């Protein structure tokens, strides 16, 4: 008799790309470590991110929620890599990260102060598959090295400026 696996493993080893954060119904700041994300530019920019485990990890995240994708700086990235090594993908921010939490400007979701890029999103949609879970959201505001960028005021956000080599130098 062949037994079904009790969990799904990623086909390849992954490294953290960012942290999706949101407030749970209890008011706690929660996070999921993402394996990848994509930013789709245009007059209504969208973001899509995923983590390489099943839907059980996002038990506190719900469709329609506001969220922030945080791209960690050097200090935060080391802490996130440690969490991945320990097998933590989803957690309460206050219990696992030594991070200052800042409220979103346009969304009701936490931003992590030590992150070099923070993307505020609304209208989350959740997509589960056998290998990963994705979140998709409408981008309403960027925070890049302390500067706010409003995609609706700029007409069309140039993602190559936000996702530059300088932004991601700590990932090498």
User: How would the global form be characterised?
Assistant: globular
Helix content: 10-25%
Radius of gyration from the alpha-carbon trace, in angstroms? 16 Å
The amount of beta strand, in percent, is 35-45%
Number of helical runs? 3
The beta-strand count equals 11
Distance linking N and C termini: 45 Å
The assembly state of the depicted protein chains is single chain
- Unreliable sequence segments: 3-11, 165-172
- SSE ordering: EEEEEHEHEEEEEH
User: Would you tell me the structural class of the helices and strands?
Assistant: mainly beta
**Sheet with the most strands, sense and barrel status:** 9 strands, antiparallel
Q: What is the residue-mean pLDDT, rounded to a whole number?
A: 81
Outline the structure in words:
This protein has 172 residues and is mostly beta strands. It is built from 3 helices and 11 strands, in the order E-E-E-E-E-H-E-H-E-E-E-E-E-H. Strands 1, 2, 3, 4, 5, 6, 9, 10 and 11 form a 9-stranded antiparallel beta sheet that branches. Strand 3 and strand 4 form a beta hairpin. The longest helix is centred in the middle third of the chain and has 12 residues. It is globular, with a radius of gyration of 16 Å. The N terminus and C terminus are likely disordered.
